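Long-time lurker, first post. I've been practising inverse folding by hand and with some scripts of my own, and I keep getting stuck on stretches where the C-alpha cells seem ambiguous. Below is the full C-alpha cell string for one chain I'm working on. Before anyone asks, I'm not after the true native sequence, just a reasonable design that respects the backbone. If someone could post their per-position residues I'd love to compare against what I wrote down in my notebook.
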C-alpha cells in the first residue's frame, strides 16, 4: 500500500467508478444491494462505496427481485421533470429491480440488465423511480423486452414491495406509484438520470 489514499486504483467506487452499462439505455450495469433472501435493507455508502446496513425490515415482505442501482446515474431535476407529481429528484442513484430465473443469493455483485419498464414512485414529493430490468443473459427472461411479457402476479409483488418496504406502524405512508411505464419511457428516465449525473458530478 503506497499510503496516498488512492484506493480507487484497486476498487472503483460502485456508483462513481463503474460504467453505466454496455449499451445504455437498453442494457445497463446494475450493482446489487439486496437479494430476494434479505430481511435487512442494505444500501451503498456514498462516501466509501462499501455496502452498509440501512435497517432491518419491519415486515415479513421480501423483495421479489434483485434490487440495486445503476452506476454513474442520478435522480435529480431531469428525472423529476418526467414525473408530474414530483417537485424534485431524491438525490440518489437510480434504483433498479432485476429479474433473474436462477436464485442469486449474493449482494455486492455486478450484472448486465436489459431495461424493460419502470415504476414512477413518488416518495415525500420526490421522484424515486424504480427501473425494472431482466438479467441480460438469463435463460428464461433474456428475450423479454417489455413489462407486458411478465406474469401479472410478479408485477403486483414488485409493486406491493415498493409500496410497503418503508412502512412504519402508526405512520402514514408518503409513497405512491403514479404509473407503471413501458420500456420507451424507461429509456427516457435512464437518459435523464445520465444527464442529471453529468450535471451534478461531471462526465
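-- Answer (accepted) --
I ran through it position by position. Result:
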Amino acid at each position: 500500500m503506497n499510503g496516498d489514499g488512492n484506493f480507487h486504483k484497486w476498487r472503483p467506487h460502485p456508483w462513481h467508478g463503474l460504467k453505466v452499462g454496455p449499451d445504455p439505455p437498453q442494457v445497463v450495469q446494475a450493482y446489487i444491494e439486496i437479494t430476494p433472501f434479505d430481511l435487512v435493507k442494505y444500501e451503498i455508502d456514498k462516501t466509501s462505496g462499501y455496502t452498509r446496513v440501512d435497517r432491518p425490515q419491519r415486515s415479513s415482505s421480501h423483495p421479489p427481485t434483485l434490487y440495486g442501482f445503476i452506476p454513474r446515474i442520478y435522480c435529480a431535476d431531469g428525472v423529476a421533470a418526467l414525473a408530474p407529481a414530483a417537485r424534485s429528484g431524491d438525490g440518489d442513484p437510480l434504483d433498479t429491480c432485476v429479474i433473474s430465473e436462477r436464485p442469486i443469493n449474493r449482494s455486492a455483485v455486478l450484472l448486465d440488465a436489459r431495461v424493460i419498464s419502470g415504476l414512477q414512485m413518488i416518495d415525500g414529493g420526490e421522484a424515486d423511480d424504480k427501473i425494472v430490468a431482466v438479467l441480460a443473459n438469463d435463460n428464461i427472461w433474456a428475450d423479454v423486452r417489455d413489462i407486458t411479457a411478465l406474469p401479472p402476479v410478479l408485477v403486483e409483488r414488485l409493486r406491493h414491495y415498493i409500496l410497503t418496504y418503508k412502512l412504519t406502524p402508526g405512520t402514514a405512508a408518503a409513497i405512491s406509484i403514479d404509473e407503471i411505464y413501458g420500456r420507451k419511457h424507461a429509456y427516457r428516465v435512464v437518459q435523464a438520470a445520465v444527464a442529471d449525473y453529468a450535471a451534478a458530478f461531471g462526465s
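A couple of notes from the structure itself: The chain has one domain: 7-201. The domain at 7-201 is CATH 3.90.80.10 (Inorganic Pyrophosphatase). Happy to go over any region you disagree with.
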